[in-house]
Design brief:
Chains A, B: One of its GO terms (molecular function) is maleylacetoacetate isomerase activity. Two copies of one chain form a homodimer. With 213 residues, chain A is an alpha+beta fold. Chain A has helices at residues 10-21, 41-44, 65-75, 86-100, 109-117, 123-147, 162-176, 185-195, 198-203, and strands at residues 2-5, 27-30, 54-57, 60-63. Chain A folds into two domains: 2-79 and 201-207, Glutaredoxin; 86-197, Up-down Bundle (Glutathione S-transferase Yfyf (Class Pi), Chain A, domain 2). Chain A has a four-stranded mixed sheet with strand order 2-1-3-4, with helices on one face.
Chain lengths: 213, 213
């Protein structure tokens, strides 16, 4: 398998964690987002969205980080990243979507660029926007993780899964943009539990082959 | 089952379509977003996110439209809304996420409110923002639906599924905000095929009990 991705893309980071948790080897194919390599003709020929990550498995290319992780979980079931029961699966998916739909889309590079270039928003207002959606979104995740009995050492029980694959990259982003994290004891406890594991260490941006680019 | 939702919420609309396609009866519980009923104490006690839709099935509440639809598909498998094969499932999920993560989050009510109230964006600039993300995002969906051989009468083959549940509400939104749709022949062909079906007709905003609110 090849993974087209970028070290600092948090959607890419999610997939790298899933691959590492499953112990699956892959070719790391860097796509430099800040240099707009995702818009170049050769990459656009692979990716209709001109987005990373993109997983190539044999003749097939799969886009969208959550779809990739579900695919990996179906084709390489052990260790499972989703619970066996429908209610548990619904909970994990909804936690993942609380991050993937409510937080991350508002804060990716092209949105921040639009705020600055098209709307003429100041650097301070852009950073306030970023923190607004991250902090409000993570408060929701904290409320759920604290109140829902299925939370364990990780987001769902005591083993890392899909929701943890989403949570950790979002915290990396929050830290980069100096978001408030002190009101999130359960989120940060789970973040620390994840980062104690070799799979999360190996997948983090600073460990990537393109980390210096 | 009870569905807490709002007639004009496109995430709610997705779930209504799925329930209708499966022929599942439910109690329609309106939550008026423009009046901020989602923030009221009684609703906040149910929903950590203060968002619609929320499906209540017995003692369990499930949030996030995609997680709800996957749950319905697992607990009421016929008719299936996801293909049987892993690659097909990945394709349908990634199409759904192209809408749920790349288009819709940028254009929901709270984001538009932030643009106007916190960033002081004009009505024209707000509408341009809306159209920018919808039109660019739907171009991606069009490119995929036109080029990928699995597209049929519907987004994946000849029966409606998860991706169609996402596509139709997004087109309703695009029409409300006068987005350009003339460059989207495959998208609009599939939209028309969906709207010819009773399930999509029954689920549309104008057919909802709270349509006049």
């Amino acid at each position: 398998m090849q993974l087209y991705n970028y070290h600092r893309s948090s959607a890419s980071f999610r997939v790298r964690i899933a691959l590492a948790l499953k112990g699956l080897p892959y070719d790391y194919q860097p796509v430099h987002l800040v240099r707009n390599e995702q818009l170049a003709a050769d990459y656009a020929a692979r990716s209709a969205q001109r987005l990373v990550p993109l997983l190539v498995d044999g003749d097939h290319a799969i886009s969208q980080s959550l779809a990739i992780i579900e695919y990996l979980d179906e084709t390489h079931p052990e260790p499972a990243l989703l619970p066996a029961d429908a209610l548990g699966r619904a909970r994990v998916r909804s936690l993942a979507l609380d991050i993937a739909c409510e937080i991350h889309p508002l804060n990716n590079l092209r949105v921040l660029r639009y705020l600055v270039k098209d709307l003429g928003v100041s650097e301070d207002a852009k950073n306030a926007w970023y923190r607004h959606w991250v902090e409000g979104g993570l408060e929701v995740v904290e409320r759920r993780l604290t109140s829902e009995p299925q939370t364990g050492r990780h987001c769902h029980g005591d083993t890392p899964g899909l929701a943890d694959c989403l949570l950790v990259p979002q915290i990396f982003n929050a830290q980069r943009f100096d978001c408030r994290l002190d009101g999130l004891p359960t989120v940060m406890r789970i973040f620390d539990a994840c980062m104690a594991l070799p799979a999360f260490q190996a997948a983090q941006p600073s460990a990537c082959p393109d980390a210096q680019d």
